Amino acid sequence: MISQLEIEDASKIWIGYFGKTFGSAFTVRNEGNIVGFFNLYLTPVKKLKHQSLFSIIVHPEMRGKGVGKQILEEIKVRAKRDFAVSLLHLEVYRDNPARRLYLKAGFEEYGVHSNFLKEEDGTYRDKILMQQWL
Amino acid sequence: MDKQDINKDNRYDIRYFQENDQENLKRLLMQPELQKWFPLSSEEDVDIFIKNLVNFSKYKCALTAVFDGVPVGYGFIFLLPYKKVAIHATAYLLVDPAFQKRGVGTSLLRNLVHLSLKFEIVEKIQCEIYEGCSLLSILEKLSFKKVFMQNGFVRFSNDETRARVVFERSNRIEV
Fold it and tell me: I need a surface site. Which of A89, B4, B42, B63 has the fewest CB within 10 A?
């Protein structure tokens, strides 16, 4: 995302998962402070209900302190227990250090979408696709 | 029905999707044979899909193949809303089973590629299919290359899942 409009649009979609329909967007707090977010992009479509893409966001000041690891553990528990999801998957850009976190948490790469994202300077970045069966 | 190439028949044409195509599209999407290749499995799923499509068709991104004035296939491209990833457009194709293997899918996809060229930001067109889908031969004919495959993505029953396979082609290649 590179504009305020895009950020607002992405936030709106994220917030949409808070509601009664899905209830799959969560805020993570530590001593009252927000330290992260996670969201399962659930679908009402029967044939796809068993799987879910998810996103996590860790507050920049809380990175490297185990918050991401805890969130991933929480996602796995909630996905299976509360939403009957058996296949969790995610998308991460190649240079993102979170990729190591996902690998450590047991996610496996199942594909690479080369040159998926184009930066404003014209350079491209690959998208790595990872998943884990629960 | 004769399986000759429909593109040689002057009763065949491709035009932009019109709102009054919805009824025919719904009839097609409700066919179990076609639902094998889509995530849709209920009337509610189909209605949501069509509603989204109708909204998107306002951007002139949806085509209808017609034979003798009657819709026999549909093709759509969806554009991504964020600038960094707007280089991709995603294509969807649907051909009436009675008109399959006559060149409808190929002509629709070729037209979708041409349509995507109108959007200068679009550099690649991608297409997601489920394994075993007959669209594969059309994708290969039009120089689409496999990007990745995800096993178990779609579940038809407790015992049957299928992979999704994503293909893409560069808009730099002539079609």
Answer: B4
